[in-house]
Design the sequence.
């Protein structure tokens, strides 16, 4: 999956504007206009690197004279002390863009690291962990990119690319069977269809329809096992997705039941940021550089 440069451009512009405002007062007061700065971005902990292209994008939009050298690609496992990038350019611009660039790198590396932890827990099973729409407003494209970098899978991007029938849709449509009849009464919809079921009774009904996936919402392991038995009894091959309060501690046992997917909002809404720092290595005026 490629970094979503186009989708992230507006976000970077907003982030720079909210941080710099009318100007970096400290740098304007203390740093000569002619000064140049070289710096390194260094990991302060272990994790999966993600967001290098965002760092490039921040400085490209701020000042194209700033050069960013990415030393490690996204998806690399990094450790405390690893140098992941080198920055060189006008000192005022480097200092003004530092926090915005680091915020993207810390946030996306945190998501990738969390996704990787889930993926590692499921290693050796046939189950894939998927993200959700529980993303930071405006950052969905880059956070889903980070999940993929970490080894997780992407669920639907938004409300437009998949039909996912959940409990509030069912209530609004007049009941479970009525909702499915409305969907499939005149043939299969053009989009993939996933249906959320809350119990085995709803599952039995869902298995009567040509849905593409069934979400087992908040099922405990004995219920999941009974659901799989019911699917086998019906001769259905519809993939199951388990969702609801999935944690690193619980995901392995769920995967071992034989379900195809687990979805977890925790990969995005609860991912702790990974820590990096930018350390200046050379500061000089333009005259000295010449």
Sequence:
């Amino acid at each position: 999956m490629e970094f979503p440069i186009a989708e992230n451009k507006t976000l970077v512009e907003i982030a720079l504007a909210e941080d710099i405002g009318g100007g970096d007062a400290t740098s304007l007061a203390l740093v000569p206009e002619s000064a140049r700065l070289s710096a390194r971005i260094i990991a302060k902990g272990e994790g999966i690197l993600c967001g290098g292209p965002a760092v490039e994008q921040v400085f490209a939009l701020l000042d194209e004279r700033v050069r960013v050298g990415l030393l490690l690609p996204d998806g690399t496992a990094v450790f405390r002390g690893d140098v992941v990038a080198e920055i060189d350019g006008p000192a005022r611009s480097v200092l003004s863009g530092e926090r915005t660039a680091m915020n993207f790198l810390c946030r996306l590396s945190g998501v990738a690291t969390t996704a990787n932890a889930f993926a590692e827990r499921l290693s050796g099973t046939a189950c894939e962990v998927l993200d959700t729409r529980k993303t930071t407003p405006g950052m969905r494209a880059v956070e889903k990119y980070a999940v993929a970098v970490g080894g997780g899978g992407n669920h639907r991007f938004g409300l437009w690319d998949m039909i996912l029938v959940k409990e509030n849709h069912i209530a609004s449509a007049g009941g479970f069977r009525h909702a499915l009849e409305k969907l499939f009464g005149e043939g299969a919809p053009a989009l993939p269809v996933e249906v959320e079921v809350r119990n085995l009774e709803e599952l039995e009904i869902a298995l009567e329809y040509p849905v593409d996936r069934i979400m087992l919402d908040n099922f405990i392991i004995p219920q999941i096992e009974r659901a799989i038995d019911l699917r086998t009894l019906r001769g259905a091959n519809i993939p199951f997705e388990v969702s609801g309060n999935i944690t690193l501690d619980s995901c392995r046992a769920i995967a071992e039941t034989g379900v195809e997917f687990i979805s977890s909002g925790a990969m995005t809404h609860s991912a702790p940021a990974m820590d990096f720092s930018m350390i200046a290595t050379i500061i000089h005026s333009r005259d000295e550089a010449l």
Notes: The chain has a mean pLDDT of 96. The chain is about 45% helix and 20% strand. The chain has two domains: 5-117+272-289, 119-269. Residues 91-121 form the longest helix (31 residues).
